[in-house]
Amino acid sequence: MRSTIRLRQTVIRLMFFWFLAVFFVIILSPRYKLKKTATYTPEKTIPEWDIEIFENRLVRMQLFPVAEQRQMIKIVFGKQPELKEFILERFNLTGNGSNVGGRMANRLGTKVEIAGQNVADIPNRRTKYVLNTEDNCTYQSPFVLILVHSRWSNVDRRYFIRNSWASIKSYNNYTIKTVFLLGLPSDGLSGEKQKTIVREYRECDDIVQGEFVDEYRNLTIKHLMAYQWTLSHCRRVAFVVKVDDDTIVNVFRLIEFLTSADNILSRKNDVIYCSAFVNQGPRRDERDKWFVSKSEYSQDKYPTYCEGFAYITTLDVMARIHNASLVTPAFWIDDVFVTGVLAKAAGVRHKQFQRFYGYTIIGRRLPEHLIKRNLFFLQKHFINDTIMVGMWKKIFDQYKLKT
Known about the structure:
Layout: H1 2-27, H2 30-37, E1 51-54, E2 57-61, H3 81-90, H4 98-108, E3 112-115, E4 129-132, E5 144-149, H5 155-163, E6 170-171, E7 174-184, H6 192-204, E8 207-213, H7 219-233, E9 239-244, E10 247-249, H8 251-258, E11 271-277, E12 305-313, H9 315-325, H10 334-345, E13 349-352, E14 359-361, H11 368-371, E15 376-378, H12 385-398
Parallel strand pairs: 5-7, 5-9, 7-8, 11-13, 14-15
Antiparallel strand pairs: 1-2, 2-3, 4-8, 6-7, 9-12, 10-15, 11-12
Helix pairs in contact: 7-9, 7-10, 9-10
C-alpha cells in the first residue's frame, strides 16, 4: 500500500517537472519572443478610417471601435509582416471570408471584414470640412452634445436657437454643447451667400460646414458628416442628441432624463431613443414628393427608423452606424438610411419615446402640464417664429431661472 502511494507521488513530481521544463522551453524560444515583440500599441492619433489590401482581398477596419475599445486597432498587414504573422497565429485566423472577421471580432472586440471586393467598390464617405468650429470638445468634454441639422439659409432659426435653449450651457452641473451642421449654398465657396455664413461662423464659432451642396438629396451626407465629426472631435461625450432646426429642446428636462434611472441609454450601448416608424414603406407614386423608385430602394418595407426631428443616442451607437456606412450603398432619405438601414446593419435597436420623456407638437395653445414633461417641441408643416419664442419662454419660466 505504501509503495503504491510513493509511486503515485513520484509520478506526480515527474509530471510537474516535465510541464515546468516545457513551459520554460516555450517561453525562451525565438518564436515566442517574435510574438512578444509584435504586440501592437494603438496610435495616439486616431485616423478616421483605414482600408488595406491583404492577399488581393479588401480588409476593412472598424475605425471607431465600440464599448471598451476606445482606440482604433490598426492592423496593416502589408507594412508590418511580423505583426501579420502575430495576429494570424495569435488569434488562429486561418482561411478566408467572414469566418476570419468573425473570429477577430470575438477576440479583439473590434471588427475586421475580409471580402472579395475592389477598393473602388467601397464608397468614400469622408466629408471635407469647409468650416469647423474651433470650440470643439478637445479641452472640455460636455455631458451632452446637441447636433442641429440646419439648412445654410436658416440664419434666423440658428440665432433663435442660440438665444433660447442653446444659451443654456449647463444645468445641475451637467454641461451642454450645441453645434450646427451645414452644407454649401448653391453658389458655392466663392459666392456672396457663403460669405454671410463665414461671417456667422466667425461671430458664433459653432458651425461645422461640409463640402457639399446643402439640398434635400444631400441630407444623408450631412447626417453622416455629423457622425464623422462627433467621433473625431468629441470622443468623451456621454450622450448625443440630433435635432432639426425647427425643434425646441427642453434642455432642463433633457438633463433630468439623462441623469435619471429612466434613461435606458445609460444601461445599453445599442439603442437609439426616438419616435420610431415601424412597417413603413417607400412611396411609389411618381407624383409624390417622397417618390422612391425600385432602383433606389427595391424592398417594400423600410427597417424601423426614427422620425428625423430628434433622437438621442451614444458614441457607441454612432460608431457602429458609422462603420456600417463604409460598406453600404447610400440612400437619399437620411432618416431611413442612417437610423434605419445602417442601424439594422449595425445591430442597433430603437426605443420609443416614453411617456413624460417624449415630444409634443406645438400650436397656438399648449396645456401647461405638457411643457415641463416633454423633451422636444416641434411645429409641423409651418414655422411661426412668434409661437416658437413664446414656447421657449414658457419652458424657461417653468424652471424659474433668471436670464
